[in-house]
Write a structure and sequence with these properties.
This protein is of the alpha+beta class. The protein folds into two domains: 76 residues; 265 residues, Alpha-Beta Complex (phage-related protein like fold). Helix 1 packs antiparallel against helix 2. The protein is flat.
Length: 421
Amino acid sequence: MQNLKNSALETKSMETKALAHNAEINGAFDEFMGAFSAFKEANDERLQKIEKHVGQDVLVTEKVERINSALDEQKRTLDSLILKNARPALNNSHNILADTEQKSAFNTYMRCGDEQKLRMFESKSHSYGSGPDGGYLVPYELEAEIGRRLAQISPIRSISSVRQVSSAVLKKPFSVDGPATGWVSETASRPQTETSKLAEMQFPTMEIYAMPAATSTLLDDAAVDVEQWISDEVEEAFAIQEGKAFISGDGVNKPMGFLSYDTVAEESWSWGKLGFVKSGNDAGLADTNPSDTLIELIYSLKSGYRQNASFVMNRKTQSQLRKIKDNDGNYLWQPPTSVGDKASFMGFALTEAEDMPDMQADSTPIAFGDFKRGYLIVDRVGIRILRDPYSAKPYILFYTTKRVGGGVQDFDAIKLLKCAA
């Protein structure tokens, strides 16, 4: 009976904390929307003075920039709160892992370094874990939880296609020119068509690692869920590293980022390269009618890709575009309509990726396209952990590795804006 009361109290406490956290998120969202209203008011004043040929008012311009910076900071805070709220509660009675034999063996290995049970389990299940050499595979549920969280906090992963493989390389054939076709009448003979010319794209997986450290006290504490602790520790490290690689990785011991492929002016586009549209100014967008270039970028993408297209840019570029209006006086950048939604730009979803370059000469600060069709991320099944109590005594290191690859799979699905006159 007492256990039931304790359980009810714990559940009520968790519900109270959840409500308090939701109130905090809603409060941050309201502050963000209020800041955006103040920004629009100040920016409208700045634009009106320019239109009346009064010139730039230094005080008004400084006010706009100050509010714009505050808006970015509040958005960062809101994103952090939403991400924190997405984490499962740290509570053994609501554990994210099923109470399985592997979980028990893995838990013993993490806390005490006892490999025997985990080695026996992996031998019995014909796993490819390799103890002292490469560590042991984490339970499937923990791997799935890390993958789910990566999709939330890794910006390019959240909008791209993701495929799991069991081999080191994914080989994907594609048709260079498509199959030959023709029109015939109902009773006419069908002449043999030419075979489609096929080529092969390869997406090798590369090793990414994180090495969180723990004290013996932390591991001895029975209230601490070590699987969730590992998940929380490694997911951000993985997200930061792979997020940068998916954008600018050179393909050497890391995925090939979409900005690392050859680029060419859109009118000269060919398969194997990404097309770009010039911004009209070496330092960024054109001084007059800057939205015209952005419209050109949107319509450089074929209609079939525009349906699910999104903009990708960093926070600094986004803050500059936030000031632009269309010919009807409407702001092209719009805040999210509710908590957890994305901001939009010119009616398309906007993904914020801090590893995108800033607006400067010859850079490509804005990408636009259907990344589900354009970029492929390859995850090799299995995350390994090697417990190391020796290298950083008195701390215990957990060398955690996974294999991931990536690259452009459809060069017609992604277009770039290049800062050039």
